[in-house]
Task: inverse folding
């Protein structure tokens, strides 16, 4: 399934037998697409990969509640609904499920609470799904990419303005503006966007893990995709919470002017 006509056309040109174009948060359209999929696979599906996702970053004090709902709709409720629709076909095909989470599903990071919450939710769902489907020997794998060189990731810090602008529209006189200034936001974006190129890696890291999860006789339960996923984020995931907190706190640069210790 593709979100844009351009994506659907590209998939068909690369050999896809079917590429429905739809918004996965539209339950009616999802149900119709499932019928198309069932016809295309003859009622027996060998694999389901959940790779759709969205991110709406920003700091919690100026994060509109609607941004949480939108991110949860795409990143959590959509895969839950689609999986439920396709479980009969997966069972008949002795198939498997691959859920693309994130390192943010293992380690919550500052400035990205809606996305982090959605990925923690998908981790819990995957764990329950894996246990239940094991009764029929249907594997469930989770892929946790770090920062990869995709349009979504490379525009992450610029997207911080969306939360600010929406909260400004809703509550332009709120006290949050005394804590988080627009000058600080622009400095934060400039400083951190420049660092993305130094850490972003080829998306092939995650793609190769998805292929293995779909095709291996014994797929892994979890794939940490990318160097940072296997090193820094694995350490943060396993480290004492106090140590992890200190490390994550140090990544907020520059600091808001009113924060203790200065900018």
Result:
């Amino acid at each position: 399934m593709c979100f844009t006509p351009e994506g659907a056309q590209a998939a068909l040109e690369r050999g896809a037998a079917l590429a429905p174009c739809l918004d996965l948060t539209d339950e009616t359209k999802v149900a119709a697409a499932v019928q198309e999929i069932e016809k295309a696979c003859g009622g027996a599906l060998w694999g389901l990969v959940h790779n759709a996702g969205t991110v709406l970053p920003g700091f919690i004090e100026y994060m509109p509640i609607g941004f949480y709902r939108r991110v949860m709709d795409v990143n959590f409720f959509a895969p839950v609904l689609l999986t439920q629709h396709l479980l009969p076909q997966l069972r008949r095909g002795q198939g498997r499920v691959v859920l693309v989470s994130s390192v943010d599903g293992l380690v919550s990071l500052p400035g990205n609470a809606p996305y982090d919450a959605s990925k923690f939710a998908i981790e819990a769902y995957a764990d329950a799904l894996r246990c239940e489907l094991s009764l029929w020997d249907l594997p469930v794998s989770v892929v946790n990419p770090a920062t990869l060189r995709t349009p979504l990731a490379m525009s992450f810090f610029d997207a911080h303005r969306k939360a600010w602008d929406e909260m400004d529209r809703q509550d332009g006189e709120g006290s949050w503006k005394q804590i988080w200034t627009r000058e600080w936001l622009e400095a934060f974006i400039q400083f951190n966007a420049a660092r993305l190129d130094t850490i972003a890696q080829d998306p092939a890291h995650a793609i190769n893990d998805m292929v293995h999860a779909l095709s291996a006789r014994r797929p892994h339960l979890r794939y940490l995709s990318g160097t940072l996923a296997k090193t820094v984020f694995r350490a943060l995931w396993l480290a004492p919470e106090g140590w992890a907190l200190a490390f994550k706190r140090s990544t907020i640069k520059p600091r808001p002017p009113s924060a203790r210790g200065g900018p």
In short: The mean pLDDT is 93.
